[in-house]
Amino acid sequence: MIKAAGHWFLRSGILEASGGVARYYLSDAKQNLPISHEITGYAISALLFVHERTAESVYLEAALRAARYLTRSAWNETLGIFPFERLDGSKGLAYFFDSGIMARGLLAAWRVTRETEFRDAAIAAGRSMLAHFVGSEAIHPILALPQKQPLAWEARWSASPGCYQLKSAMAWLDLFEETGEGAFLRAYESALLAALASAHAFLPGDPDRQRVMDRLHAFSYFLEGLLPVLDRPECAAAFSKGVERAGQCLREIAPLFLRSDVCGQLLRVRLMGEAAGILPLDLPAAEHEAAQAASFQLSSEDPRLDGGFLFGRKNGQDMPFVNPVSTAFCAQALAMWGDRQAGRAMISRHALV
Fold first, then answer.
1. Which of 234, 302, 308, 343 has the largest count of CB atoms under 10 Å?
2. Residue 238 and residue 272: Cα distance in Å, rounded?
3. What is the pLDDT of residues 341-351, one digit of tens each?
């Protein structure tokens, strides 16, 4: 399953010759969406994970091509920031969340290769996150470029501050571990406090049950962001309660709308919570989430589909999106599930895509 997912990244065209990765593949229209810098960051980590599992150099080479796309094409040296996509002139947007994902992907490449290009770019991204996104009240989710002016917050989760930002804030903690710069550690700790304070109100957060499924995806980012600090009682308690709430919401909404990435995310945090010794595994729930995640992987003679994972299912009908993030999360979750069944050690939080 992990190898089939890796083949999809290499053969489907989702990873372009430049190293950039498309947001997703529209299977009904038979075309990719434009390159996404955030998705390219995820792809680096995913390809490195497949390389670690298979020892096949082709995955390492693809991961490094994606990493060099971020450092040499995506990073805007003039503005000192990672734009959301390639800029139209100088105008565009930049997202805090995306920046953290890219920094984490570059650090993953640095750990494998020790190429300073990747480390330096990750540090630059982390400092940019500190300089441009951190406000007096919260972390601004979106900036308008070139002025780097925060956009007014909106009701949708991705356009407002929230506990989900903690996953990207993990980049600051990772950078502190690499550099010893105290500003990175202080920023992560501040983001942690804010996330703990706001997490309870994040779910359900919307009367529309389909939007609650989308918020489950974001809430899972909060749970992932807690992984470095599960030795702290208040964080372990928030994590345990959060996994229980997320699992309940997932089961309730799934007949109407089910996202594959949420299945993968929830299974991953369950397994890592058990490995950390703070959350006994709910075996029936884990088995169900693993089966649901696996049900989204495609088998086809069409290389644009084969091995990839669909984004979701509404009212029992598959949605026509083959998604790199869904593929990365679900493939990793199922690999971790296999590790657990075989009695192998759980992955480190640094390897989490």
1. 308
2. 15
3. 999 999 999 99
